[in-house]
Amino acid sequence: MSLFKKKNQKKENIKKSSELVEFLMLENSNDETLLKIADNLKNHVPYIINFEKIEVDEINKAIAFFSGITYALEGEVILIREKVIMFGDNNAFSDGTLKIFVKELT
Q1: pLDDT digit string, tens, across residues 20-64
Q2: Nearest Cα to 38, choosing from 65, 71, 74, 76?
Q3: Beta strands in 51-105 (DSSP E)
Q4: How many Cβ atoms from other residues are within 10 Å of residue 87's Cβ?
Q5: Domain spans of the chain, in order of start
Q6: Among 4, 40, 43, 88, fewest CB within 10 Å belongs to which?
Q7: Across the beta sheet with 76-81, what order do the strands follow?
Q8: What is the DSSP letter of 74?
Q9: Are 93 and 76 in contact (CB under 8 A)?
């Protein structure tokens, strides 16, 4: 008899954060679209969003909204290039794969 039991360790198929990234060409900034993306951000799904197809006022609204969500989740906002931005919560950046992914993109 031993003092400590061996735990049944299952090898789970854990994905790296860089494999979870969603790429999105934002075509409108209606509330329904923004809220759906916000829900996914809260569920630890990082986004790279291209804002090129929407007007400047809509871009500002969307970036302010996503930045607020990201701040509340203690995450990061990374500019990939003009009008292309990555948003992710602190959990998405914890394994370091997103930082490497972003370096490879730029």
Answers
A1: 899 999 998 899 999 999 999 999 999 999 999 999 999 999 999
A2: 65
A3: 76-81, 84-88
A4: 25
A5: 17-105
A6: 4
A7: 22-25, 47-50, 84-88, 76-81
A8: T
A9: yes
pLDDT, tens digit, 9 for 90 and up, residues 64-101: 999 999 999 999 999 999 999 999 999 888 888 888 88
For domain 17-105, the CATH class is alpha beta
String of DSSP letters for 13-62: -PPPHHHHPEEEE-----HHHHHHHHHHHHTT--EEEE-TTS-HHHHHHH
What is the Cα–Cα distance from 68 to 38, expressed in whole angstroms? 10
Provide the pairing of β-strand 76-81 with 84-88: antiparallel
Q: Which amino acid is at 30?
A: N
What six digits make up the tokens of 60? 């500002």
